[in-house]
């Protein structure tokens, strides 16, 4: 496996872990801030529509960039900002703003991530290289779901959001290795 893939896998594992901490308990959080099932649905809608619409527009621009790694790093940084924003969510309006920021992060990150990851995939190892990413994502998100649940149960949602922010910052910081030393990444 190329070193570039290892960097992407570790950085993305940290980001997946941070976001996975809220997944299964998200609706409980929405209820805690005075929302209901429709508010949770609208928040998810804002996230998805922002991600989809902005991704459609930005991905064409990203195609023209020689350094897609910077979009990965910026996407991770915006993800960290979104995790931080959760700490300050006390009503539906701030929840929607947070979801829009996270949708923007995905829109910027995902096409660039896929392009950079594809660049480092070895010929004749496409299935195992992509399988490593898929497996990592599921396993890390499973562990994050438990960690987030335990943190919320023992402490509160603010502790979960603080942990999400810290872990996402670690992923963002690690992702800087993508373009600081590109020659290193292209070695086997």
From TrEMBL:
- Please give the start and end residues of each transmembrane region: 7-29, 41-59, 71-90, 96-118, 130-151, 157-176
- Start and end residues of each Major facilitator superfamily (MFS) profile domain: 4-188
Q: Which domain of life is it from?
A: Bacteria
Q: Which PANTHER family match?
A: INTEGRAL MEMBRANE TRANSPORT PROTEIN-RELATED (PTHR23526), MAJOR FACILITATOR SUPERFAMILY (MFS) PROFILE DOMAIN-CONTAINING PROTEIN (PTHR23526:SF2)
- Gene3D superfamilies assigned to the protein according to its UniProt record, in alphabetical order: MFS general substrate transporter like domains (1.20.1250.20)
Query: InterPro entries, per this entry?
Result: MFS, MFS_dom, MFS_trans_sf, Sugar_transport-like
Q: Transmembrane: is it a keyword of this entry?
A: yes
| SUPFAM superfamilies hit by this protein | MFS general substrate transporter
The answer to whether keyword Transmembrane helix applies is: yes
Name the species this protein comes from: Candidatus Magasanikbacteria bacterium GW2011_GWA2_56_11
Sorted alphabetically, the keyword list is: Membrane, Transmembrane, Transmembrane helix
- Tell me what this protein is called: Major facilitator superfamily (MFS) profile domain-containing protein
GO terms (molecular function) for this protein are:
transmembrane transporter activity
